[in-house]
Input
Amino acid sequence: MAAHASAAVNEELNYLNWQKGIWSWLTSTDHKRICFLYLYAILFFFLAGGVAALLVRTELAFAGPTIITDPHTYNVLFTMHGVFMIFLFVVPGIPATLGNFLIPLMIGAKDVAFPRLNLFSWYVYMIGAAIGAVAMFNPIDTGWTFYAPYSTTTGTSVSLMVFAAFVLGFSSILTGLDFIVTIHQLRAPGMTWMRLPVFVWASYATAVIQTVATPVVGMTLLLIIAERWFGAGIFDPSKGGDPVLMEHLFWFYSHPVVYIMVLPAFGVVGEIIPVFSRKPLFGYKMVVVSSMAIAAVGFIVWAHHMFVAGISDFSAKFFSIVTFLVAIPTAIKVFNWVSTMYKGSISFKTPMLYAMAFVFLFMVAGTTGIYLAMLGVDVYYHDTYFVVAHFHYTIQGGAVIGLIAALHFWFPKMTGKMYNETVSKCAFAALFFGFNLTFIPQFMLGMDGMPRRYYDYPAQYQTLHTISTIGAYLNGFGYTFALANLLWTALFGKVKAPRNPYNSHSLEWQTQSPPIHENFAEIPVVTDEPYNYGTPTGRGH
Amino acid sequence: MLGLLGQQGSDFAHKVDYAHDVVTILSVICTVAIVGVMLYFAVIYRQRDGQDHDTPRIEGNSTLEIIWTVFPTLVCIWVAWLGYDSFVALRTPPANAMEINVTGRKWAWDFTYKNGKKTTGELVVPVDEPVKLVMTAKDVLHSFFVPVMRTKADVIPGRYTYEWFRPIQTGDFQVFCTEYCGNEHSRMLARLKVLPKAEFERWLADDSEARKLASLKPSDRGKELYVSKQCVTCHSLDGSQRVGPSWLKIFGKEGKLADGTAYKVDENYIRESILQPQAKVVQGYPAMGMPSYQGQLSDDDITGLIEFMKTIDGTQKVEVAPALPKKSAASTAGMTPADRGKALVNDTSNLCATCHSIDGSAMVGPSFKGLYGRKEKLADGTEVTVDEAYIKESIYKPMAKIVQGYGPVMPAMYEGKLSEQDVADITEYLKTLK
Output
């Protein structure tokens, strides 16, 4: 007892324990605490969206009504899944959690540029989430895409839900703005732009998209409300409006938002692979340039979601060609990650397994994206399960796997504890296998022409649907297992994490685990590149 | 080759499948190669005995990076071309394609053939003949997807979209709605039935006479509307000039709008011109010439008018029944001259009210309100007082004296139609409109 007591007294002060009580968390402007505020909130919606997905998959396991007796409930559930996962989980996802935690640490700053704005953005998020929760009393059935005129005429609480998404958009804009200013202004001495870790670069590209694209969807969502409340007629053909305009406005945001989701995950993988390969990131400059290129080109490809939506053939051809421009920087990134492993000294810690899984999943996501950029092939695949599977490989296989990888990688820094490697590897295996088992059959369903958002389907599709449902359960189990392991370790774990368990070169590992309130006892001076692993004379093996 | 998309039902399906096969083979090769290299590195460069070994500080390799930028670019150009090429085939119906109108509604598909035959949920087409589906929706977005034909297009309220195919084999095939449209979305199915040509002809002719009685075919419906909705007033069928462009050979016609941009008359152009006539005005025609028919014509009516216009292609003379019969003199006997004049102005067969208001608002022509006794400036700058003589001249010879600001658009159709007495009565009526 005495030993314990003295250990507690001697415990170093850090950002987790320097102030106590729930109120100290809810009013904290510390970027590291705000990371956790966001993390618990988004994981709650990940759980809610995941449960909705499993209900949908259960219904689809067999042809005909299974557990859901009416199509309306089914439509509500897949909409819930989409809205929760996109607006409340993946979009804030990595930026609001790890972006918040890591950007100041990685650039050698005490906090973000506007700490109170940062906390405010979390409250804006929570207000948006609360409005969304109220909308659940008469849940919407439009799909997360809110296409008019269905969304302007259906009887569910669309106005409330799109207003929730509108509010959430402001949270996203504020976070993005904060990060842009932070990265421009608060870099430590010697932290030049070309010494920024790629995660910071990816977050920067993401923040630019967040601030530029989000206002457009905000406007679109308000127009839907104007349509519903005042009969504005913008999207209503009987008043001279045009439903296709709504699709344009929606995708002008919602295509770039895919890069909001996935660019930070690129950054995470770019951090993990060098550390566990003991090699500099191969072609650092190209990785940085490709992030910015993806962010830029991402703004002019939106109508590739609309090849069959009644746009002119000329527009379709234009948007197909520019879409291929996104493929090239994405391919470059994959080549760079793999080359980083060449002549490395590779250890297979859990984050590295996730990073390697990411490379595979993203190859599938990218190559299946090529099918959808090809005009004649997309006409066939548009709105089929092929698109559903492609999208999940990109967003789940990309953004969500990236988030889980990041949570494992920086967990020692965030909590000061080490999780059990064996448990986390088992969870990884279940998650990875389950994911592929869910979505590979969905590619095959798409090849057979199975349309998406169907409550019921012809019997010929049943076998593949059944397999997909089994995969979904395994996938859900894997996520639960992985996150429960981390949560349990955070609360009850005994193994203390050292300052720099992976012997990493980047700044966030040079301070204590967990960091003190203002990150660094004194602002560090940077004299080195972030990935200076290996030796100039090293030969490998 | 690989047959991943299943049975090919249209003559362009092989193009789509070829593009699909090429990208499948390339994707598998690339994925296996990259993941293979990654796993190979992972195995041979793995840490042994938990000890780090010495590694070289390789920061990049320009040659390699140029190669893996250029190579994917070339591959992308190739597959983009394959996608483009198959898309062009999908979007280019032959001129002789048989057109079928498709209407999507919650939650069924309606098909209307040129002879007026209508079906719901079953699209019957002949084999080896190109079929063009001209599609619109009644309520929300839908999408018409025929997997076996490899084609699909969204079906949108307020505009027309199309898709086409040439079936290469007979049989029954699945049609899906692929744009989410509400509760019964997954049951918004249809069957595509491809029949041998002779059998199709028999099917099409079968009981169509009985159906014609119940509902006219679209072009006949349009012909009826042309008269009853007074299109005839301003649009001739024989090329003669009236207030608006003649409908002779109007479908597919190209030209310039008042603002100089080019236009081409297609389904969407006609629809817009009927519902929002001011949106696109052809050069040389009055800007405020035509009233909107919003709310007066249903979608089926508009489709009918479009179909009617397509028939006025100059290959044969199109005759319409005369407009409303003239009111008999007996019905106006015993009225005061001013009342008779009012009746003549309001008589739709005389069409005065189409262009002249009685409330002072400007339409194609000057308003009748306060017209009598007014001083008007003519197009040539001279001034004239509106009196009996001027009114008579303007009715019989509309082009003689045109008031400044108005176009030379009034038809010279009243000589012989309106007697001197009629004109005198109309003048009396105009005097009452202060």
